[in-house]
Recover the amino acids of this structure.
């Protein structure tokens, strides 16, 4: 059924459809409504899981660590400082191989105080061993939460579903809310490989020496890499049931493109308008919209790029001293490469600045028209802003 | 694509007005609508902006609206007309909640087509909000539907019932009165 929902409510509706057993969360702008709605649904009996109220994000993730160890399907959501406060527990959850699913609504980190969209919060957790999927519209938020449970439980690796604060979290649009029976077909009940059970005692997270520790880390690294196949398989299965296809990335008018925008999140939606506008003016623009950041689709990217097609990577994030994080990851994925494309990095929209169609067109032109310059791609990012 | 920018104050239901429009457009079944609040800190009485895009196909632009086709003013004391009308397309439309006539109000809006609706009076007569803080959003949505044709009154009334937190019948009636008012007064004038 089609309903008008804000992005945050899409996340909550999806968690309820996934028949989550335990929700534990602490509110923070702009994520608040994603758990507020679940609390209301629990109070009115429409959500049958348990909502655990806690005093901090650190405790929220600690609750889910315990609940998931006991075999529960779990959900939480947070943003910015809340995610930073959870950091320690993120490592605990992935190390314990628990498939917790968390919605992460991108918001800039202080100081200075700022409430608006910026991906530096989620991307600063890239080394925690969590999967990360970036959404560009409200339908994709709802669908990706469902996909995340399936992939996370198959891989025994936790997953973050990430989207832009306000631009998606607070925006209303019509989305197709799937029927419960279809969701049940796609997402069977969670069957933990091992769980806390007083009748069959086990030790969890015990002290390990280096011989075990390095093997467990190697296994997590390998499993996270191999989860690429699970992402693709889940996407095909999802399409079979719901008719919508999601992969590691989305290609838009790439076939004959002279340069490609590379974007993620809501700007990855606006970028399609930029591509069409450039094409209408006779320029062959294309877009690669990244969805999966972890697992990072490095092999697929290496096969996809062409030496004569520059990439213009748009980062709404910054790792101070090294620049845009998608820019860094893409360059790392393409080394060494027999015929690498020039890769240009652009930082835009930090702290909620609008990444407009016009700005994206300008970014594409920067990359497309600098092709003839010697020295190939830049090492330092270009900082861009729409003056309005 | 029709791009609409709403200007109001915190507490008047400005963001909800954009959401009601999205609900009404869905129910009307002829287009898609995306409704976005301006990304601010909500405070009662502070200026609030919201945006809505309505289009036949999927809406992919996820940005603020800089060159609206329609500017909707829920609170006439919100600011200078030049500031509120910034970027308004030359053929654009200004819909104002005011008891002044369109001819009087038009003086402040040199180039735009101006439509006035006494949303405050309608809201207060139905007990929506207080004299200091009338809830005018549903009346304004009625006027907007009448002048743009983006939804009919049946779709709008269903959208209001699904969206307002209280007094659904009074809100529906406010929209109906404003809808009728704009059909009779402004269309006749235009």
């Amino acid at each position: 059924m089609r309903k008008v929902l804000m992005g945050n409510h899409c996340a909550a509706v999806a968690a309820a459809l996934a028949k989550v057993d335990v929700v534990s969360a602490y509110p923070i702008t702009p994520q608040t409504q994603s758990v507020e709605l679940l609390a209301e649904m629990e109070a009115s009996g429409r959500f049958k899981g348990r909502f655990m109220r806690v005093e901090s994000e650190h405790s929220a993730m600690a609750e889910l660590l315990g609940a998931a160890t006991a075999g529960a399907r779990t959900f939480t959501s947070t943003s910015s400082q809340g995610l930073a406060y959870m950091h320690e527990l993120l490592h605990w959850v992935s190390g314990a191989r628990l498939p917790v699913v968390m919605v992460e609504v991108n918001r800039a980190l202080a100081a200075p105080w700022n409430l608006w969209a910026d991906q530096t919060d989620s991307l600063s957790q890239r080394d925690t061993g969590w999967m990360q999927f970036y959404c560009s519209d409200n339908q994709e938020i709802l669908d990706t939460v469902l996909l995340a449970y399936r992939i996370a439980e198959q891989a025994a690796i936790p997953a973050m579903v990430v989207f832009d604060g306000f631009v998606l979290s607070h925006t209303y649009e019509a989305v197709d809310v799937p029927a419960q029976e279809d969701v049940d077909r796609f997402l069977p009940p969670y069957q933990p490989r091992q769980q806390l059970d007083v009748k069959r005692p086990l030790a969890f997270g015990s002290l390990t020496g280096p011989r075990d520790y390095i093997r467990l880390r190697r296994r997590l690294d390998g499993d996270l890499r191999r989860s690429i196949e699970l992402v693709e398989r889940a996407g095909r299965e999802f399409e079979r049931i719901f008719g919508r296809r999601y992969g590691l990335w989305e290609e838009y008018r790439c076939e004959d493109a002279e340069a490609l925008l590379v974007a993620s999140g809501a700007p990855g939606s606006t970028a399609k308008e930029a591509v069409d506008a450039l094409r209408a003016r006779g320029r062959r623009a294309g877009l690669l919209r990244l969805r999966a950041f972890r697992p990072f689709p490095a092999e697929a990217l290496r096969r996809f790029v062409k030496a004569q097609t520059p990439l213009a990577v748009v980062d709404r994030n910054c790792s101070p001293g090294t620049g845009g994080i998608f820019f860094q990851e893409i360059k790392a994925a393409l080394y060494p490469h027999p015929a690498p494309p020039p890769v240009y990095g652009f930082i835009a929209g930090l702290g909620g600045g609008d990444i407009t169609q016009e700005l994206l067109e300008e970014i594409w032109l920067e990359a497309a028209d600098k092709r003839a310059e010697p020295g190939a791609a830049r090492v330092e990012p270009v900082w861009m802003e729409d003056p309005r | 694509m029709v791009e609409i920018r709403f200007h109001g104050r915190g507490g008047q239901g400005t963001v909800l007005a954009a959401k009601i429009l999205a609900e009404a457009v869905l129910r009307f079944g002829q287009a898609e609508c995306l409704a976005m609040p301006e990304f601010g800190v909500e405070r009662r009485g502070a200026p609030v902006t919201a945006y809505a895009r309505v289009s036949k196909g999927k809406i992919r632009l996820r940005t603020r609206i800089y060159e609206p086709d329609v500017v909707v003013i829920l609170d006439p004391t919100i600011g200078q007309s030049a500031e509120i009308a910034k970027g308004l397309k030359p053929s654009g439309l200004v819909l104002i909640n005011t008891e002044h006539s369109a001819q009087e109000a038009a003086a402040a809006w040199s180039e735009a087509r101006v439509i006035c609706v006494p949303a405050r009076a309608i809201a207060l007569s139905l007990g929506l909000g207080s004299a200091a803080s009338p809830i005018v959003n549903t009346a304004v949505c009625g006027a907007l539907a009448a002048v743009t044709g983006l939804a009919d009154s049946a779709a709008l009334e269903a959208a209001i019932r699904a969206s307002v937190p209280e007094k659904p019948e009074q809100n529906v009636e406010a929209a109906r009165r404003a809808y009728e008012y704009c059909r009779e007064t402004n269309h006749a004038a235009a």
Chain B is about 40% helix and 20% strand. Chain B has one domain: 2-189.
